[in-house]
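Data availability excerpt. The first of two example chains:
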Amino acid sequence: MTTTKKTTVKGLFVTFLTSIAILFTSCQGVIFYEINKEVELNSAQIEGDVNSLVRFGDQLITQNGYVWYKDSSSSTNGEWTKVSASTIDDSKPSIIKVAADSSYIYAFGITYDEDTESGSDTEGENIISSRIIYCATSADGEWTAIDTSSIGDDYYPECLFCTNAEDESGRYAYVRMSDGNTYQLDGTSAPTVLTDGTNGLDIDAVTSAVYFNSEVWFSNYPLAANDTYMYWTAGSDTVYYGTDTTSATGYKDVSCDDILSMAVTSDYLLLGTESGIEHVAIDSDGAITSTTSDFDTNADSVLSSYYYVPLVFSLDSSLSEEANTLYGSTVYYGSASASASYYDNICLWAYYPSRGNWNCE
């Protein structure tokens, strides 16, 4: 009887150790897969939350609280130049979004002050004290606040966005204001109000625009375009495509989490989602032909399912995914007690065809 009990206890102990070993091995496998897929990661130059990357002339402009720029032809990680916050404004605003048209770069800046009002719900906390759109004709040039006095002193910017077209002639920038209207930007001149309903424009909710068939189209959700189709969502994992966002040529339920960003190449549509990066195949006519599929690169091991991907960017929609220069960003909204490695990998990422893999920028 005693021998049987000892044998049973010993067996349970061995089973417990085996389970722990399997769990540990499984976790380690996932961690190593997601960290690098056998690619040594660089130290990121553009750390933190990156929400936008836009074309301006022969440069790319991005932000992470600061404005950064580099040559669009660069195929080397890093090589970004930071614009001093004080160059934009003496108040040193935090830049949360950038946009551009054919003549100007725009930066959405926020400043904070401590709430010193006794008894208020936010007493002692930092609260937003100003929201301002700045513009410049070059990233390292003179920045000026846009004049919105014609809209009214009580109103402020809510959303900055642009078409980000590959063809410079199709680049336009817009701001949605708290007065419930959306305006086209034109440098330091007073913005021009847009007409509700034009090419999908919902003036008090719009967040994105593309230039397609010599027109600007708008959406409340992510948009992308090539020479054949526009691609859009409606807040789910269904992707529509067509030449008019009010009447789709086709659609596909692509089986992914909610889509935050899109970029198109000649063979795939890249999707930034609430659970990492995904892609779906498109044919030579631009039609979506599949649900999400595995990557041949390390894309889904670095822009992994642990992260939101608010930005994906393709430099040239006429090139294939693996022949393209691509960018993406990661944001982590998990537990504060999560591994420090999760926070280390919140940054801008890039894929260069000469390198053949994704790595920190």
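And the second chain:
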Amino acid sequence: MNAKPWKTWAARSAVATLVVGLMGCATVQVHRIGTDSSTEAAFELEGASKSQLDVEARRLCPNGYHVMRQSQQYQRLDNDDIFYVRWWNRASALVSGPTTQKAQLTVVCKVVPPTP
């Protein structure tokens, strides 16, 4: 018995959405920057959202960190109210990288004082 055309289309759409979602894993770029002290580590992080950068900063600085500079930008697209346009923009952003969102964070890791 043949499957109904709408079921086949729905299954193909679900698989395509899953593949696009898996391809677009968000990345965080980390750049180590120099400081005057040899015991401090400082990093400049770039990614799609500030929450992503906070998670990476906590991983890089297990003793905590000081935020020196941070910024986040989000641009709303012109046709963001139309469902199909919103879906296409999200799907294409997963494949080609975030073009409408950008976040930056510069941190200096806290140094644990030596115990006497």
